[in-house]
Amino acid sequence: MKKVSLLLVGGMKQEKAEKVIVTLTEELKKREIQADVIYANLFDSADLSQYEDKCDLVVHAGTGKIDTNLKVVQGLGLLYPYMGTEPIYDEIQKIVSE
């Protein structure tokens, strides 16, 4: 099983973020990826540099621009599943396999 450290960023409440993290980790586990996920609320701090040493990539569950040196996967579909979540998991899997 491959391992990855993800930074989930967005402007959601902690309770919502925890639900998204559970879904995200469960779906990635089905793809043989063990994900450690940290959540950063962009309303509390827009500075993501403090996470860059701890994480492999960012899942951005929002629409605003973020400033990071990490690879970014657009994850808005995690908040709005009708937008589709498979492309999110596919892209994470592709990056992890590189």
Compact summary:
The chain has 98 residues and is α/β, with parallel strands linked by helices. 30% of the residues lie in helices and 28% in strands. Strands 2-1-3-4 form a four-stranded parallel β-sheet, with helices on one face.
The whole-angstrom Rg is 12 Å
**How would you state the average pLDDT, rounded?**
93
Structural class: alpha/beta
Helix content, binned percent: 25-40%
How much of the sequence lies in strands comes to 25-35%
> How many helix segments?
2
Pattern of helices and strands? EHEEEH
For the secondary structure, the number of strands is 4
Main beta sheet strand tally, sense and closure: 4 strands, parallel
Q: State the end-to-end distance.
A: 14 Å
Instruction: Write down the overall geometry.
Output: globular
Strand order of the largest sheet: 2-1-3-4
Unreliable runs: none
Task: Please give a structural write-up.
The structure is a single chain. The chain has two helices and four strands; from the N terminus they run E-H-E-E-E-H. The protein is an alpha/beta fold. Strand 1, helix 1 (14-30) and strand 2 (33-41) form a beta-alpha-beta unit.
